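hiii so my PI (J.) wants the whole complex modelled not just the main chain, which honestly fair. so below is everything: two entries, each one labled with what it is. i double checked the lines twice but i was tired so who knows lol
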Amino acid sequence: MKVVIAGFGTVGQGIAEVIGMRQELFSKSFRQKVRIVGAFDSSTFVKDAKGLDPGELVARKAATGGVGAKSQEGKIREFIEEYDFDTLIETTPTNILDAEPGYTYIMAALNAGKNVVTSNKGPLALKFRELSRAAERNKVQLRYEASVGGAMPVINLSRELLRGEHIYSLRGILNGTCNFILNRMKDEGLPFDQALREAQEMGIAERDPSYDIDGVDSACKLAILANAIFNMDVTYHDILRTGIRSITEDAIALAAEQKKVVRLIGEINDKRLEVSPRMVPMGHPLAIGGTLNIVQLITDLAGEITVVGRGAGRRETASALLSDLLAILSDDHAKGR
Amino acid sequence: MKVVIAGFGTVGQGIAEVIGMRQELFSKSFRQKVRIVGAFDSSTFVKDAKGLDPGELVARKAATGGVGAKSQEGKIREFIEEYDFDTLIETTPTNILDAEPGYTYIMAALNAGKNVVTSNKGPLALKFRELSRAAERNKVQLRYEASVGGAMPVINLSRELLRGEHIYSLRGILNGTCNFILNRMKDEGLPFDQALREAQEMGIAERDPSYDIDGVDSACKLAILANAIFNMDVTYHDILRTGIRSITEDAIALAAEQKKVVRLIGEINDKRLEVSPRMVPMGHPLAIGGTLNIVQLITDLAGEITVVGRGAGRRETASALLSDLLAILSDDHAKGR
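here's the output for the full assembly
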């Protein structure tokens, strides 16, 4: 399998390394090599039909800030369409305004008959149906486990292992930064601003934290889950959204007196499509601490199935991209390709 | 697909009903009908190559205590070997002494070229390798998601969705009865005996509770996970085992002062293969309450992945059997059978 990596930040570098680490698995399970035949970031570009060395790519990025020569303005799309490869691994940053450049790259790949594996929330939270229809029309796969909850395998769990269930509803914590802040407020009795500052100092929250604490990130992920698992046709804008800025230490102390904790919960059911702070009984799976992500699915036979995992990180997100790559390899293998 | 149901207690009836409920799914996803062409319990037997009605089967069992005519002593094995069907759904009760009658039924089916889907811990906790080798040799599938943790999809998650991970270790709560008792002791300050009595009154614990509270049930499940996920070759007897009988309310109160709870934890790693009571920090996923089952996998890329589900119940166990049936149907479908 020949892959091209789009975007070469933390996630792109992570999947390059992991592809290097797993060659034995690819050959043992599927008698395949996975070759990185191209990579690009916002300004540089490299290709080699014989395959690029992942370690060299990552070292070059660290040393020079790029993966190769300066790329020509507007030529990337053409490259995706015309170059000979099988799967685009799309890891450009989430853009919640117009989903670019990810949307253009993904569409170009799908329409050129290439599979796409992505960690990018923007295109999926804004233009899910266009993308999934393009994949269907071109008989290729579009997979996006890495776009929701990092290493937490909620999408493949729902669509594959739980394919026999009727999934009625979903609840989850989809943003580790908010969970960390709420948990510190409870454990240490900190006011919101102080817990946020602590999270920023630890690198858990960004300098501009609004994407996390106003629930934008959670809402993007909830929109993707609504589309992927519940077959809805929604965008990020359809999610009713309240963040955690106005949660006071008093509210958290009051909840604790009732043996409850406050969590930023995303919920999908036939009445709600919402991200908002909610009270959760201690001991309930959703009362989880730390920066973990968690999703609980309510189904007709199994009852509740809950999955928890690390919501972010270089290796963790690469893990989800890898699982999607393996699913494509496995599918090709079963079909005797 | 023609299936025979072995054992027609709670779980056997549950999967019969679920097969009835999911005919539309079978035909939509795989252009298949799943027909129940035979069923038997410890003393009665019925077959019909055209297919038995699940509702009628369950009603007959309720009305007469059996599924059909008295079965002839020793003829069941012959029936499994000679009758024309594709998959045995084996749901006879767990027997931890000699794994019978499940072991004989499963072996007969595998050696006759039939797939097996089972919820029965005994054969897997005592003779895992013999069974998995027989499946390999006969090029059929042996699947057993339902044998560990009811609806919690830990085996298929580990073996399928996480096939790209190196799984280093596993920790989990595999017995809902113990978890209920430990949780009631903490929440209400009850002594062990009283919490156990309450669990018995609620039907959560058996009249003879030793199978649960001495950790036998957890150890069986841990042995199955060690074999299935870590490719070990162990039996239930290889698990170091301590139950919860000697946990005092004082120990639980002391743990609570340190913001910890006591849980009966099963653990697999390169040094340990053990079921024992352990302290877990509140807010940690393993501090879960109620009768839920939980497993946490520690892997090289994803870090920790945790899955939680209902560990027992008619529909819940049927849900796991169904997921295995669907995996077989899907595999057959991909291979164009």
